[in-house]
Structures are given as C-alpha cells and as structure tokens.
Amino acid sequence: MTDDKDVLRDVWFGRIPTCFTLYQDEITEREAEPYYLLLPRVSYLTLVTDKVKKHFQKVMRQEDISEIWFEYEGTPLKWHYPIGLLFDLLASSSALPWNITVHFKSFPEKDLLHCPSKDAIEAHFMSCVKEADALKHKSQVINEMQKKDHKQLWMGLQNDRFDQFWAINRKLMEYPAEENGFRYIPFRIYQTTTERPFIQKLFRPVAADGQLHTLGDLLKEVCPSAVAPEDGEKKNQVMIHGIEPMLETPLQWLSEHLSYPDNFLHISIIPQPTD
Amino acid sequence: MSCHFLPRLWTLMSLSNSPRKWQAVSNRQNWQRTLTRPPASSSPRAAAAMPNSVLWAVDLFGKVYTLSTAGQYWELCRDSPLEFKRVSATTQCCWGIACDNQVYVFVCASDVPIRRREEAYENQRWNPVGGFCEKFLPSDRWQWSDVSGLQHRPLDGVALPSRHWEWESDWYVDENFGGEPTEKGGWTYAIDFPATYTRDKKWNSCVRRRRWIRYRRYKSRDTWAKIPSKEDPKQLPDPFNDLSVGGWEITDEPVGRLSVWAVSLQGKVWYREDVSHPNPEGSSWSLVDTPGEAVQISCGPHDLLWVTLWEGQALVREGINRNSPKGSSWSIVEPPASENGIVHVSVGVGVVWAITKDRKVWFRRGVNSHNPCGTSWIEMVGDMMMVNVGLNDQVWGIGCEDRAVYFRQGVTQSELSGKTWKAIVASRESDRSHSGSSSSLLSAGCFFGDEVRGSGESCAPSDTDASLEADRPGPDQPVPAESVDGPRNPRDSLASGTGRTPELAVEVAGLATQTPGPEPRPGAASTPAELPWTNIDLKEPKRAPSHSAASFPETTGLSSLGLLPLGLEEPYGADDHPLWAWVSGGGCAVEAHAVLKWFTVQSGLSPPVQTLSLSIMPAQTAAWRKQIFQQLTERTKRELEHFRHYEQAVEQSVWVKTGALQWWCDWKPHKWVDVRVALEQFTGLDGARDSILFIYYVVHEEKKYIHVFLNEVTVLVPVLNETKHSFALYTSERTRQRWPVHLAAATEQDMNDWLALLNLSCCESRRVHGRPSPQAIWSITCKGDIFVSEPSPDLEASEHMLPCDQMFWRQMGGHLRVVEANGRGVVWGIGYDHTAWVYTGGYGGGCFQGLASSTSNIYTQSDVKCVYIYENQRWNPVTGYSSRGLPTDRYMWSDASGLHECTKAGTKPPSLQWTWVSDWSVDFSVPGGTDQEGWQYASDFPASYHGYKTMKDFVRRRCWARKCKLVTSGPWLEVAPIALGDVSIIPESPSTDRSGHSIALWAVSDKGDVLCRLGVSELNPAGSSWLHVGTDQPFTSVSIGACHQVWAVARDGSAFYRGSVSPAQPAGDCWYHIPSPPKQRLKQVSVGQTSVYALDENGNLWYRQGVTPSYPQGSSWEHVSNNVCRVSVGPLDQVWIIANKVPGSHSLSRGTVCHRTGVQPRQPKGQGWDYGIGGGWDHISVRANATRALRSRSQETATGWSGEPGLPSTPSRAAGAPHEARGPVCC
C-alpha cells in the first residue's frame, strides 16, 4: 500500500463476518438455521439485512412478524450507527464471526429508533452528511450539489459502489488551498462506559499557531479520561474502523480518510482488553 | 561493416580509464580535438541559493532584506556590509544606491556562469622563403587583429573590463570553422586579405588566419559589486538619488537586456548603457535631457518610464521601443491636484501608481503602450510613503503611519487596481535568533573601505541583530559620546548602544574618520554638511504635511539613511515590527492563485516554512501513516481471511452512467451529431470490473448504436480547441485506421467527468493504477498532454514483438513539451516556457480528480507559450507597401501558411484552458531575420523570406506573437531556477549495477549552456545543483548513453562527443567535434546502450556507424529513415521515433509513435517500423524501459559478449544503405 487512496478502499471494503441467529423465544414453525453474512462496515444494519429478514421469515408464521431488530449480548443494536462502529464499540474483543441475535418481537422502544423503510435510513444518512458539511464548509459544498448528486451518494452506499460514492464524496473532502483543513472536524466519540451516547464538540483541525491538531489533541480536549497519562498504563483503546491510529495522526487526515460515508469520524473508546 | 563484429557491449571501465588511448586513436584516425580545457566551472556549488522569486526591501537602517514568495521571514541580504537607500530588483539581479552614494549591482548566483568570449585573429602571409609567416606586405593588416583586421589586438592587450571579471582559461586556438573541424591548427585560408576564408589550403592561398579565443567570467555574484562612479573630477559631485531597473520585456537582444535609469541630486536623468545578462555592469552612464529637475524615476518591465519632477508633475517618456530603448521625447502629466504635487511614481507593464505630497495613493487610468500618459487619476485608499509595482503589475507599498510593507491584494489583469492593502507581517529572521557577538563588530569595521568584498556573510546577520538591540535602548544603557556625535551610521550607534564594547566602537569610528577617501564612506558620513544630498532629503518633511505618527521622527523622507536623524535613541517602537523605507517587487512573481504566507505571524521559533522539496515528503514516511496502512492490512486479514466463503450482504450490480454528447460521425460528410451515450459497468465474479460504452445515434431516422469495450481502449486523448471540449478514444483497430471515436461534451466539466470516468474504467479493466512503474514509457502530445504506458515484456522481444498499436496509454496531469525518464523512477520534464520539472511520484492531477489522482504529490503547474500570426503586405507603386493585396493574395492577417485568416482581434488562445497574458507584439526572432520593424521581404507569397529589402521584393510580412498561459496541476515540481531546452537521464541497462552512484543527468539550458546535474538519486530525483560544462557555442540537444557516453548537438548543427565522462568525473574532460552528415544540420541526438542516433533538421534519422568501446566517437553517419520528428533510443538499444506522416485507412497521421523492428545486437539499425498511436504526438521517451523477455535477453548477452555471430531470427539485410529506409515514408 503506497497511496492514501488505498486507505479509502480498505475502509470502504471493510467487512465483518457475522452469524445471525434467531432469538430463542421467537416462535417458529421449524428450526431456524443461523445465517452467515459479510456485513460492510460502513453500511447500516437494516440496509444490508434483507437476506437475513427473508431467511428467518421463511420459518415464521406471518402473524408473528413485526419490525425486525438486532441485539448483541443483550444490547439492542442501533441501526442508525454504522455497522463498523457497533462492532468496534461492542464486540471488537470477541471472537469472529460476530454473533447477532435477531428479534421480531418486543421492540425496545426506549433503546432503538423505528426503521419503517429504506427511506428512513436515507433520511438519517443524508442528515448526517449535511451536518458534517455544515461543520466542514458551512454547508457550502453540500448545498451547491444537485439533487442527483445527493442521490448518487446514497445509491453508492446502498449498492456498495465505491467509485459511484467517491465520485461525489471527494467534493465533500476538499477544502480551500489557503486553509490547512476543514473549518471543524465532524467527529463523534463513543464510550461504552458512560450513559451519554456520544461526545460531539466543535474542534478545529489546525491550532491557532498553525500546527495541525492530532487525534491525541482532540482526545485531550474533549475526552481526557480516554488518554492515558504520560507514564501511566494504557487503559483504553481508541478505535476507528477496527484499527487504533496513533495519537500523533493529524486529525484532518483522519477526517479525510477514515470518516464513515456519513462524513463523520466515529471514534470508539473501549477498555483495553485484559489478557 | 567490420565494426559489426566487434562486441556491442562494453564496460564502464574501458571507457573511463583510457582517455589517453583515445587520444592516440583519434589522432591516427585523423581526429580533431577541437577544444581541450580543464573542466570548466567544475566546483560544484550549493543548489541555487536564490529562490527565483523574492521581494526586496530596505529597512530604516538601510539593511537590505528579501522575502521569498514561499517564505514567511525577511532574510537579511547576505554580503551587505553597506547600507542602502534604494534598491530596484529584477528576477536576476538587484541594483541599488548605497549610502556611500555609489551604485551597486547584486547579481544573483546561478549554477550557470556569466561568461563572455574575447577573440583575436592571428594573420599570416605566405612567402616563398619562409612559407606562412609573420612577414607582411606593407599594406597588410596587423599580425594580431580583430575580425575585420583593422584593429590591432595583441593577445596580452586584451584586458578584463573590471575587477568583477576573471579569466576562465588561457588563450587557445578555435578549430571549429562553421561547424566543420579545421585542420592544422585552426588555420583558414584565402587569396588575400580581406577575403572569404576556407578550411582548405589551395594553390593560390596566399594568406591565412586563425581565431584565438579566451573566456572571461563574471565573478562578483551574490555580492554587491560597485559600478564605477560616473563622477568627473572636474565637476561638482552629483551623486545619484534614485534608480530604477526595468525594460526586460522590450527586447531580448542581447539576452537579459535591462534598462537601468537613475536620477542624480541635481535632477538629471541618466541611462546606463549596455546592461544585459552577459554584461551585468553595463558600460557607461549617458545623460538624458529633461525639461525639468527630476527627483525620482520608475521604469517598468516594458515601455513605461515615468519620472517625478521637483515641481510636482510627472514626466512620461515616449517612444521607448526595441530600437530605441531610451525613448525619444517627454510628455508632462499634471498631478491630481495642483496643491499636492506628485512625490513618487511607480510603473508596471500597463499601470502607473503615484503618491502625492499629502501621501495619498493614486492610480492612473488608461495607461498602455500607445498612451503611456494614461487619461486620469483615481484616488486609492491608504496613506503611503512609497509604492512599487512589481512583476505581473502587483503592487507593494510602505505605510505612512506604521512603516509596514503592504501588499495590494486582488490585482489581476482585469482589475489592475486591486482590492485592498494587506500588511505583510512576516518577521525578520534575525528577530528569531539574537546571536550577535561583539567579534562581529570588528569584522564589520573591516568593511569600511570602498571595496565590497565577497565574504561578508559572517558579519552581516549578527550586525543587524545588534543594531536591533540598539533600537530598544534600556534606561540603564550608557550612551557614550560617540553616539551623539556621529550617529549617522547605525553601526556606530549599535557599537555604543550595546554598551559592551566601547573600545571597539571608538576603533571603528576612528578607522572611518581617519581614512577619508575621494568618495563618501558609510562610516564617514557623519556630518550632514558634507553631503549635499542630505539637504534635499531634509526638505522632504517640509513638503510633506507633518501629520505622521508621533512615534516616528519627523524627518522620514523618501530615502532612508540620509535623513536618519540624530535621535536614534528615540524609541522607534518598542515592538519587533521592522520599519521599512523602500520596497521593490521587480523580482517578485506573485501568481494569482498563489497562497502567500506573509500575512500571518509565525509563532516562536517554529522552523521556516518548508519549501517544497522532493526528497520524500515527511508525511508519507510518518510513523502514524505506516501504522494505519499496516493495521488496515492486518484488520482485513483478521476479519476476512477465514470468512471469504461467507455471502456478501450487498450484491454487486450493473451501474450505468448515461449522458448526451456529440460524436464526429463516421460517414461523409463528417460532422458533429448529437448522440446519447451510456457506460455500463459490471463486476465479474472475480471482482474485476468491465465496462462497455454505447453510443446511440440516429441516421436516416433509423436508430443505431456502436459500442466499445473499455478493456480494448488503448488511449483517451483530450482534444481541446477554441470551441469544443472533445476527446478521442482509440482502440488498436482504430489506431490502425487513424480514425478514433471522437466525442464532444457541452461543458469542460462534463468532458472532464466523462474523461475521468472512462479513464478509471479503462485502468480498472486493465488493472492499472497508482504511480507508473519506473520502466514506464512516457510520451507527450502536441497539446502538451502527458501519457504513460506500462511496457510489457513482449514489447522488446526479439520475436513476436507486441505490436505497439496495442499499448495502453493513460494520461498524467500536467503540461510539458519534453519528458525524459530512466529506469530508476527519475523523470524530468520541460515545459513550453522552458521551465524544468521533476516527477514527484504522484499520479492524476489536471482533469483527473478524486480517485484517479494521488492525494499527495500533486502541485499546481503552469506553462506559457506564444501564439503567432502574420501581417502580410504587398508593394504597389503608389502607396508602397500596404495592406491592399492582389485579389489572389493571402489574407492580410493570416497564420504562417497564409491560408487561414488570423486577425489580432479574432485570434483566440489555443483552447479554453489558455488565457492571454500579454498583448500582441512583433516577433523579431523569426528565422531569416527581420528589419528594424520586424518585416521580412520576399519576391512573392509564398516564398523564402529575408530580413532586408531588395529591388525584387514585392511582398513583406511580419510575425506577431502573443503569450498565453495555462494553469493546471500534476505530479510535477519545478526545478528552479534555470530554464532548460533539453534534458537526458542515463538509461539503466539490465546489467548496470544499480547501487551507489548518483544518476547521471545532462541538460542544455534555454540559452544553450550544457549542464550536468549533481546529486540525482531515486530519493532525490531533483538532484542538488548544476555543474556547468563549458562550450564554445550554444548547444541544443544532449544525450547520455548507458555507459556514460555523452553526445550533444550544437546550434551550428554539428555533433560533439564528451570525453571521459564517468561517475567519478561526471562532467568529463573535453569535447570532440564530430561533423554532421554532409549538408545536414543535426538537431537532436539519442544514445542508448551502445547505439547512437541523430536527427537532422530535414527529418532524416542517422545511425552512427563504427562506434566501439575503444573508439566511441564512431566513424560515419548512416541514413536510416526520413520523415522523423523525434528519436528515443533506450537501454536495450531499442529505437522509437515520432514519425511525421503515417498512412492509415482513413487519413494520414502526423506525429505518430513508431517502433523500430528487427533491432538485433548485430543489426542495431533494425529493419522497419511498427506504427503505434498517432495523430499529434510530439515526444516519446523509452529510455526507462529495460524490460525484455528473459529468453531474448540471455541471447543478446551471449552474442554481445562473445562477439560471435548469433542466430539471427530474421534474415539480415545489408546494413548501411540509405534506401533501406522503409520508414514511415510517404508523399
């Protein structure tokens, strides 16, 4: 790997091998076989699980079918989080494949949003993209795009077409030559140990003195507990797309290369696994 | 033929170790060694220290600083022991008036020396007793004379013009006579003086002569060299008060000609004669009469010259042109308001800015070459002490209140007055590090003589540091008496101000006062009364309303040092901001798109801005990046390796992009027809992508379509012209037919989208992506577009060679005229404007954005070229020459052929990518010469033209040129500052030991200097510095072969071989003159492993016969082919050319890539041509490709080394016969 463009490909084509099993209490007409699938890390659960739904619906009675939802080790999985983020946050230390339980009953209203159709995912995705561009370019880039460009972003994600998506998305990743980066970096920091769903603040990619901010600078500023003291023991992992970038990595570069398709850097802080 | 049995390969050793043997061989072979000289200028110096674009400025203390367009800090001008009150800069040099009232010129250092040839002729007459001897007839000329024979010119009587010159070597005999080597010591013969001389001695040759030549070299570079004073001791001293340099766009004859104007204290205007690049000092001052007393002067790059008069008006020089750079007459322009006269003007190419007595800034409306006076004044915002117009009509000024340098933002060709003033807040280098030491004071004192020496670096910077400290005297600092008595010179006051070395200060001051010379010295300028010019300066404040800020001393006039008041101890400002007195932007090229870092304060001691350098961007080697790459690979392995059998969640589908384009239809009459296009992209089971392009059209109300598999496309070429955004799509079939699929889009954006998408699809289907391999073949079209092809091993196979119409070419961003590569990934290019560029390792750029482009290593690139049109006239008995022609005549304004009408107003830049950057001007440099007004005469159209009128000439024409500029981006970085005409990098054959040595790279500058680049390696492809290789005439082409054989072509069309070039001696030792083929002038040479090919001006390709290791210069030229525009010989001795015309089934194809077939070790001339991509190709370099199918390589090596006849795979043909040229011949 020699060029940064290859990072984009690796990020896009990240896959999580997943084993879907039907929840034991669900009533079936015959035994439900587990279903194995490679899930795109950058996509959304409800967008890529049509096959799973069909598979399990075959063994169920029509009247028992209501909205599908997923759960991992007792935690309902938020469909509006990218799959890679869910995995990193909840299951990165467990063995592969990722075992997800499929539910059709008892929708956890307080934990999950309903996902009535693909339109809901599209609306959510596009609102994230717009929010990110508001932070990066005061919405100038996204507002200058045509409707068909917005559609191409979404269709690229939905159809897993890297070129189609990036043909448009690259415009969202540009910034004026006289600046050293975006206005603010769109990021969200997730921790399993806190109640708060995520941390999101305004943070610039370049310091007042012209120095590039790094991942470490960001964490020290907005989530100091995540960073180990100089000489202290490393307690947490800072994970994006299943890897732990060094804290010296410039934030601007991360934002350009390791953002999810929604243009946000989704950063998971998870406790260091104890061996 | 005998040489064919000699081994075709030789080792490096045999070449580098036997120069003496060569000499013997060459003598026996009647070989002329035309020039022997110790390697000229062989001391490698550091890479050009002078960034090619800097702003010059003088602070209130007379210190000269420069600020680079890429920099953030003012750098103290090295070697300036003197203080200056004026500077006027160009890109190559800076003129200044120092506070000793003397004029100095600072010629920027360069790897190419400034050298001038002196010559003298030795004449002899034959007599029956002594043969040719020095006994002359009484009526004869001097034995030693100039070329005319009239001037006596003994060798020892030729002196250096000033002490800034040195001799390069001793006198030697010139043995080159009009491109032909002479015999017997360079003598040329004639019947009598003065007559026509010939090389050959005939029975009636009674006299002979030969030319002796000697080079002198300008040595005072990167230092202030004093121009001898004009003072006539009999008259009152009248020192210079202001000075301005410009005029470099008036004409380029001689090269680098400048107009240097000055104003003396008595208000006279002076012009410096004969200033040019080869004569940087000029020759003498001549007085130019003025109708009033001048106080200040400004000379623009072109024909504008304005002078400020004492009375407040401006004088405008009229009639400045190529033939009369001094101009002819003056006009007067009144100031905007009579009560506030003009005190300062500055002019550019088409602008005039002025300052009036009340410090208001004015812009003159309507100024141009035809109306240098302009029409009216417009008041601008801001109060300025002075303004200065630099390159591109950019403007700088010095603020009245804060003495800061301001840059006028938003100055463009369409809005010359700009938008706002923006203060440059860059700090001085010295503000960052105070490292002054007292010892420097002593050395500063050593420089008080009138001699400016070259070794001032050590003292100059610290000197300033100390003086800065003196700006801020603390309350506890003792103020010795000296500083009150003689504080004119800051150095004095600093010595005292620091309070550390009072003894030294006394010593310094004493030294200065004890040695009064005829000229005022900086240190001696202690009493204002002694300096008449100070009086004038002191009047300044009276003229200016005294509303300047209280923090300034009242006497801040236009010049700096002369009026520094006694009160140097006054707090000039406790902050660190430098206070400026003068600024000059004549050498500062600020491009419209450039991002300057002058306007933000850099904190603390952070390093100066990283200048773009190619030696591996730190970001790419940073640990974090490596770690991300590595972790992603590991992640993919961890999460996918054992699960590949899992089903994909999202099935891959077909993706279709559709659109509307125009298509140049296949049937006659050919025209653009509207078509619908669809690109269907689908993914195979193996993940490979393939695509089909459908073009739907309607003919005779019938719907039809054609389709193209993108994996069969060989190249996509943008075809930009004035009106259409179009591109051509070739397959190998269509290459053979010379008939591409030609499509046009409605907008540039649309075309770029399609080109990028189609290119991406082609590359994906061929699995080509990322940077080209080091072996890649590079080529350039006549539009300057760059293409690169990955060579397959079959390409140079001895059997079943891959047809070159099947090569896949992909485009790289950028715009070049020449590109040369070698097998280690070093690639250099030369633009149309002769700028040298080095490949950065990126890919994409230009119209390739996003995925088709690498993230880093893409930079802005620009190029400039000229568009030419012709003005044609016919003579008639009534009105003489006029634009009224015969009915059958050509257009009165036409292209070169005369067939197409091209008017000044109607001619557009070559495509929409180009924009005009100059006005139309007459081109005097056309072949055949012109008269004073640029006309060329002929008996009738079309004919051969000459530059003078005869009785038989009834028509005349002249060429007009207009510059246009293109800005694009690509993986290229400029190699400043020397412009190049040709470049060649050593090809690396498979057998070459790749380790160790740096990569040999030779070049010819645009002025014809031969250069050798030092320090080129894979990691530093730009190299470090140039080594100049002396020649007796300008060169045009150079090529270095795999064994360090360097061949070159001179402007007179003859070839030269450079002896003893080796890694240890990169510049070799001497040139061996090789005559060109009979009656032909060579223009290009290319050397491969052993083969040497040359190309002449008539398109003939020649092979050098008889080249052997012991006799590398060969014996004769053998004709190979005609119709050739460019040749490239590679490390396998493969021969590729650009052919002029190649037949196809649909049309002729100009500029076609052709590959020589049947090239064998024992048959290096090959047999025929294989035709590849064509239709406007200009340049190819195959010199990086040493890949050959393994089998054939071993075969080659075997025959090569053993010298035994191998098994020819094809019947060998008689070599050496010109008729064998079955080349791309037609017509």
UniProtKB/TrEMBL annotation, chain A:
Residues 119-174 form the Autophagy protein ATG5 alpha-helical bundle region domain. It comes from the Eukaryota. One of its GO terms (molecular function) is Atg8-family ligase activity. One of its GO terms (biological process) is immune system process. One of its GO terms (cellular component) is mitochondria-associated endoplasmic reticulum membrane contact site. It is a peripheral membrane protein. Pfam families: ATG5_HBR, ATG5_UblA, ATG5_UblB. Residues 184-269 form the Autophagy protein ATG5 UblB domain. The keyword Ubl conjugation applies. Signal peptide: none annotated. InterPro entries: Atg5, ATG5_HBR, Atg5_HR, ATG5_UblA, Atg5_UblA_dom_sf, ATG5_UblB. Residues 11-104 form the Autophagy protein ATG5 UblA domain. Keywords: Acetylation, Apoptosis, Autophagy, Cytoplasm, Immunity, Isopeptide bond, Membrane, Ubl conjugation. It is found in: Cytoplasm; Preautophagosomal structure membrane. PANTHER family: AUTOPHAGY PROTEIN 5. Forms a conjugate with ATG12. Part of the minor complex composed of 4 sets of ATG12-ATG5 and ATG16L1 (400 kDa); this complex interacts with ATG3 leading to disruption of ATG7 interaction and promotion of ATG8-like proteins lipidation. Forms an 800-kDa complex composed of ATG12-ATG5 and ATG16L2. The ATG12-ATG5 conjugate interacts with RAB33A; this interaction is bridged by ATG16L1 and promotes ATG12-ATG5-ATG16L1 complex recruitment to phagophores. Interacts with TECPR1; the interaction is direct and does not take place when ATG16L1 is associated with the ATG5-ATG12 conjugate. Conjugated with ATG12. Belongs to the ATG5 family. Involved in autophagic vesicle formation. This is Autophagy protein 5. The lineage of its organism: Eukaryota, Metazoa, Chordata, Craniata, Vertebrata. The gene is ATG5.
